[in-house]
């Protein structure tokens, strides 16, 4: 253990560090993870909740620090996760609720928080198989939308989520919360629009894009002859011309009410499960 952990506000308790001060340097470093720049520089992120931490460990993610509230100390699952964290060379911090609220920026935080190493899949390593469905998002800005889409992609059996251009961070606390743990289960890629277009040609995928100018009903698109990429545009401006023109098919989701558009996460869910329906129909015939 470094001397840093023995500064005022932290004291050694076996293999666990008890932290009560908001001024503790470790706590300051963890709170800095609320900033994208600091997350990227450190290559780590925060996941809140015992279930998320257990899911991440079961899926082989590297835990750097485990933080839990004193009230959770005696819970068997918390003790097991703490033991596993120490065995993997990570830190374990027992903190007050005041410290935990400060770290999570919530008045009623979950009792357990894990700090994990970020994990990105490289675009060049993404080689889709025939029945794969991939979601590509152009400049998605809302962390709640991104987290919900990652969760939905996981539920629909998608093989990856590609973030194209200047997107919100997949590893922000808000996004990770909205994924409900699916961020640990589905590969996430980030790339520029130019890189995406090169990969599209090289990989031979079938890109089905939603677009205001789409003349084809989304239910009639081809989702099963090749690996399909469902391409969705920015919440406000939709897809830019270069991505829309490069798509194999641009489609629309028919609407009847007064609303002129769907929420991005809802529209993506509609597209994902339509693609899934086509694949299930194909499986039933074979």
TrEMBL record:
Keywords: Methyltransferase, Transferase
CDD domains assigned: SpoU-like_rRNA-MTase
GO biological process: methylation; RNA processing
Domain RNA 2-O ribose methyltransferase substrate binding: 46-122
GO cellular component: cytoplasm
Domain of life: Bacteria
Molecular function terms, GO-annotated: RNA binding; RNA methyltransferase activity
UniProt cross-references to SMART domains, sorted A to Z: SpoU_sub_bind (SM00967)
Pfam families per record: MRM3-like_sub_bind, SpoU_methylase
Family to which the UniProt record says this protein belongs: Belongs to the class IV-like SAM-binding methyltransferase superfamily. RNA methyltransferase TrmH family.
Protein name in the entry: RNA methyltransferase
